[in-house]
Design brief:
Elements (H helix, E strand, L loop, with lengths): L2 H12 L10 E3 L16 E3 L4 H10 L4 E3 L15 E3 L6 E5 L4 E5 L4 H10 L2 E2 L11 H6 L16 E8 L4 E5 H11 L7 E9 L1 E2 L2 E11 L3 H9 L4 E6 L5 E10 L9 E2 L2 E3 L23 E2 L19 E8 L3 H9 L2 H4 L3 E9 L14 E8 L3 H15 L5 E2 L9 H6 L4 H11 L8 H8 L3
Parallel strand pairs: 2-4, 3-4
Antiparallel strand pairs: 1-2, 5-6, 6-10, 7-11, 8-9, 8-10, 12-14, 12-16, 12-17, 13-14, 13-19, 15-16, 18-20, 18-21, 19-20
Keywords: FAD, Flavoprotein, Oxidoreductase
InterPro entries: ALO_C (IPR007173), FAD-bd_PCMH (IPR016166), FAD-bd_PCMH-like_sf (IPR036318), FAD-bd_PCMH_sub1 (IPR016167), FAD-bd_PCMH_sub2 (IPR016169), FAD_lactone_oxidase-like (IPR010031), Oxid_FAD_bind_N (IPR006094), Vanillyl_alc_oxidase_C-sub2 (IPR016171)
Pfam families: ALO (PF04030), FAD_binding_4 (PF01565)
């Protein structure tokens, strides 16, 4: 079925004619990503409700990309021809209490899944700062939380189902498929469109969260690892203006946080709830002050119950090996006068090494330098090369879903398992249906 046929089909469906075997394709106003900085290049949005409908849609398209919760700031999910939304794939399929796993559809949001798990006595190992993102989208881009012993969200995946470029249903598992599975989990939407994932679980637990203020940067030189190891999850926030870390967020299992020390490496315990940007109202932030609560209401920085505002920000993030954490921090600090005027906040986190081929954390524990920028696109895009140059001695990798300007040749040279990934792309997408501008430029470009 070609594009013209799809458009006709959409019109028929809207008039109420029952053609359930066809896929809906909405021709609508220009659509944007979550932040509003990117307008998608097509108005052809397919919204299948079943795997069979997804197969039919993929077979019908010459070019297509999966679209999750639209939280990526770059063109990774963009397409000049067709997008397929996973929004209708949002159900919990099964809970296996013998294997301690849960199987969910690809489009379910973490915030929708977590209470169900907790009610049944389970928890996920980690969560990102926002619980509003989809499981498959987060794993495909190696999205992460923090914790020097915690892997990215993708490390919880033990099995997955996808529809490949031929329209075939493919099932892969850690147990049975070895390197092919390890290659496909962080798939960038380039191997297939994921329909479901199985996640490893652990017993549920309670958490507490405390925040410390004004940690002197001088403490980082000798104590960076100790500071980042002070809880189950630790985040540092700075705006680079005062030679200090304005806030240290420490999340710990309740049983491991017996008391709240008045100081932490020179920082002082906050006396009220805080937003990562101190001037903002913390009403939408997860509870602090050592108040005990469920793991899923402490691990993210923000509550699921509020709708994140779209627009007014940009994001970029770079990962370097943890042994270079302090040097990387100081390299960025030298740019403070250029960075600070365009920045909302920088967050520094730690992520454990993994064995996923396209993960930035492949075989190395990393520190993440995350920038939430004002939505000043020209200025920010001029700053990114300066940050990349400052971090260049440490071979930084960017977050797959955020803004970066690294030359394709430089990025490719830093991906040890890129040849294996390209081989799997060729196997499951021989016609290049899932190859868009982002994939072509960053994985195949020669500049």
């Amino acid at each position: 079925m070609n594009k013209r046929t799809f458009l006709k089909t959409s019109s028929v469906l809207l008039t109420g004619t029952m053609l359930n075997h066809l896929i809906s394709c909405k021709k609508a106003e220009a659509r944007t990503n979550w932040a509003g900085n990117l307008t998608y290049s097509t108005d052809n949005l397919h919204t299948p409700k079943t795997v069979a409908e997804l197969q039919e849609a993929i077979k019908s398209c010459k070019k297509v990309r999966a679209l999750g919760t639209k939280h990526c700031f770059n063109k990774i999910a963009d397409s000049s021809e067709n997008q397929i939304s996973t929004a209708e794939f949002n159900k919990i399929i099964s809970l296996d209490k013998e294997k301690n796993t849960v199987t969910v559809e690809a489009g379910i949001k973490y915030g929708e899944l977590c209470k169900y798990l907790d009610d049944n006595g389970y928890a996920l190992p980690n969560l990102a700062s926002l619980p509003h993102i989809s499981v498959a989208g987060a794993c495909a881009t190696s999205t992460h939380g923090s914790g020097i012993k915690n892997g990215s969200l993708a490390t919880a995946v033990s099995a997955m189902e996808m529809v490949n470029g031929n329209g075939e249903v493919v099932n892969l598992s850690r147990e049975k498929d070895g390197d092919e599975f390890l290659t496909a989990v962080v798939g960038l939407g380039a191997i297939g469109i994921v329909t479901k994932m199985t996640l490893d679980l652990q017993p549920t637990f309670k958490m507490k969260q405390v925040v410390y203020q004004n940690l002197p940067m001088a403490e980082l030189e000798k104590n960076f690892e100790a500071i980042m190891s002070g809880g189950y999850s630790v985040s540092l926030f700075t705006d680079w203006t005062k030679k200090n870390v304005s806030e240290v967020w420490i999340k710990n299992k309740a049983e491991d946080m017996k008391d709240m020390a008045p100081t932490y490496f020179g920082a002082t315990l906050a006396t009220q709830n805080l937003h990562p940007i101190e001037a903002l109202d913390p009403i939408n932030c997860t509870d602090q002050m050592g108040v005990e609560g469920p793991w899923y209401e402490r691990m993210p920085h923000f509550k699921m119950g509020f709708t994140p505002s779209s627009g007014k920000e940009l994001q970029s993030e770079y990962f370097v090996a943890f042994e270079h954490a302090y040097e990387g921090f100081m390299a960025i600090e030298k740019l403070n006068e250029k960075v600070a005027p365009h920045l909302m906040i920088t967050e520094v986190r730690a992520i454990a090494a993994d064995d996923l081929f396209m993960s930035p954390f492949y075989k190395k524990t990393c520190v993440a330098f995350h920038f939430t920028w004002k939505q000043e696109i020209p200025e920010v895009m001029q700053l990114l090369p300066l940050i990349e140059e400052a971090l260049a001695p440490f071979n930084p990798r960017p977050h797959w879903g955020k803004l970066f300007t690294l030359k394709p040749s430089v990025l490719q040279a830093r991906i040890e398992k890129l040849p294996e990934f390209k081989a799997l792309m060729a196997k499951h997408d021989p016609d290049g249906k899932f190859r868009n501008e982002f994939i072509e430029m960053n994985l195949f470009g020669e500049a």
